[in-house]
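Final report, closing paragraph on structural work. Over the funding period we assembled a curated collection of sequence-structure pairs, and we close with a single example.
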Amino acid sequence: MAPATIPIIDFSGFYSSDPAAKTAVVDQIREQCGINGFFQITGHRVNPTLQENVLYWSKQFFALSDEAKQTCSKDNNTWNRGYEMLRSQILEEGTQPELKEGFYIGADIPTDHPYFVNKKLNSGPNQWPVEGFDEEKLEGFKSSTMSYYNATVSLASDVLQALALSLSLDETFFSKFMDGAVATMRLLHYPVQPPDSDAKLTRGIGAHTDFGAITLLLQDDVDGLQVWDKHTDTWIDVEPVKGAYVVNLGNLMQRWTNEKYISNVHRVINRSGKERFSIPIFISGNPDYVVECIPSCKAVGEASKFPPTTVEAAVSSGYAESYGRAQRFKQGLERAVAASA
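Its predicted structure, as stored:
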């Protein structure tokens, strides 16, 4: 069997006035969503300059001192915005806390917004560093990241339109889901992985599936992302392509499609000897939207595999599990140290 690959789809055909070009893009997406739920797209509408700027500012942020980054620690709030230090999360059971640090950004809503007042799915004002950047640089960091965030969320809506057509639905099927949608962006930095680290236990991000509907990932030029291929029982390396987005389906979409489409296991192991930077945007959707089996995804008389659920309930449970796992690991280490004292 030939080695599996993650295809690169020229998404410009979806914007074409030629129906055949649009159908060709939709057909490629449909095929890949049923195989492993991952593909890359080029020919999208996110300006390359926005991509270059956000990667530049991401690197500038992570180059700040630990003290400066901690001034905007996500521990300062309860809605998951700000800096997340190394080894804060364990997504793969049985591995060590992950070798990545991150910075969480979302729609910058005020504290009187209903989402914040009602504690909807990690919604609230963004948090920015108060040390390390002068006023001009801080404004550059904020404006570049938010401009990029908005452009990529808009692209996600386009991808969802293509997904709707791939499921024999009206192109606007996901519009209500995206009306008032929650989306979370993470600037991620993977330090160089120590050469003597245990390959079976050390991860940049452990093997996991994403919690929401879809994820759009911008990579720099350092590899490390791997996708599990159940057909060959091997990990597929997702080579970085300049300007491209890695698109993958999350657990919410798998549930929505009655497992017709796949939310696939993936991980990051940074063996490159270089620092790796990437920027995913996780599309969760409107927190109150009720997700239930799409009619075209089951035969007449066939039962749905999952009961209806709100976006908030489905996505929140995934976050709680992964961070709870890291907290239990930390508590175990503390008990071990106390016992040996």
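Confidence is low (pLDDT under 50) at residues 322-334. The radius of gyration is 20 Å. We thank the funder for supporting this effort.
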